[in-house]
């Protein structure tokens, strides 16, 4: 049997990932990535020989360490049928599990009641504070908070972000414009924690209320979205994004279930069953911004923006002052699923 590695599997928000202590993984990036591919079972469409869930939302890794004043969180997206491990994006969903993991592993002390865990997002220059429920100094996972896309309820983890604007692209509006035209299609390129290309559905010939399966089987639409994405990636300063997981593309439409705006988000080659945390923060910022393609569709102008998605809605708190982001926050839940030893597939 190969040497095992301590691993925690946690559902964070609407995603699921393998959480590791940085000290348990090789320092060398190439060796670390090779190990993670063998742990997750990649490359293989079913990830049959590893713990990956054969979908981008369940092929995720969090690497956690302690720093002087808090916790370091590095997010890695592990390719499924490709041998790629990418650190080029954040993941606000797995972030929900970082505070609980840090407390469980003794990296951060639990307080009585609520513990505020300061977290540095190593994928960007940003940071966040996670409020974890810790009655009697222990992490409480049970609770009555419901998030769409996850069955049942669990304890809330409140996430407050700092420095989300320009996380990967250096500016909230990476092209310098509220609106650009690519291939004759008006788009808003934005980065409030996640680089996203926002497109109004009427310009793509779909309703924006299709199911994930309908969108993923629309070959013509997928090809058009990908062409837009690659062209937008260049304009956003991200270079050739053919093999990159960013930017995402979010198709926006008028809300139809009492929310503020409706979305279908390509992440980028599958359609999200809901929407990412920072993806939602970016769409919300676009929706609040005068002159963007999303702004005319926004039906609510407060700071709590209910982003409708294929399995419900996600409320994100975003406040802008002109083009300056004043606040980005969201409520998620997290639940540990497994704590033990994972055995990587041997090298072939
Ligand atoms: O945008 C999926 C997810 C994400 C990312 C993706 C995320 C975020 O839902 O903050 O959480 O867009 O690749 O886990």
From TrEMBL:
GO molecular function: isomerase activity
Superkingdom of this protein's organism: Bacteria
UniProt KW Isomerase keyword: yes
Keyword Cell membrane: no
Alphabetical keyword list: Isomerase
Family (UniProt): Belongs to the PrpF family.
Top enzyme class: isomerase
Protein's recorded name: 4-oxalomesaconate tautomerase
Species for this entry: Gulosibacter faecalis
PANTHER family with a match to the protein in the record: ACONITATE ISOMERASE-RELATED, ISOMERASE YBHH-RELATED
Alphabetized Pfam families for the sequence: PrpF (PF04303)
Record EC number: 5.3.2.8
